[in-house]
Specification:
Blueprint: H1 9-25, H2 27-35, H3 37-42, H4 48-55, H5 59-65, H6 69-78, H7 83-97
Length: about 110
């Protein structure tokens, strides 16, 4: 993390989802992201894990981080990911990275 700054988890998720919202809706952001993803990402207060999940791209990790399914679904479509692959990527994310950590899909262990 640049400068030793560690974003607050809830705020970081907010900015991650805000970036995906802009990416899903604004063609200028899409174009810039395709050419210079790090520059787009730098405008948002994200942690290293979130940055990596965006640039890999890792739909499963984004899901585990707590990204809203509506935002994630549109991002996957923007990447050209078929629906069945999108669903499989979320399942694989939980298998590889553990339960959803935050947001409305957070998985509670009992």
């Amino acid at each position: 993390m640049e400068g030793g700054h560690v974003p607050d988890r809830a705020m970081s998720l907010y900015y991650l989802q805000k970036l995906l919202y802009h990416l899903n809706r604004e063609s200028s952001v899409q174009t810039k992201f395709k050419l210079q993803p790090q520059e787009v990402i730098a405008d948002y207060d994200l942690d290293d894990e979130e940055r990596k999940a965006l640039t890999d791209p890792d739909i499963g990790m984004l899901y585990v981080l707590g990204v809203n399914g509506q935002l994630l679904m549109h991002y996957a479509a923007l990447l050209g990911m078929p629906w069945d692959d999108y669903i499989a990527a979320m399942r694989e994310g939980v298998r590889r990275h553990g339960p959803v950590r935050a947001g409305i899909y957070a998985m509670v262990e009992e």
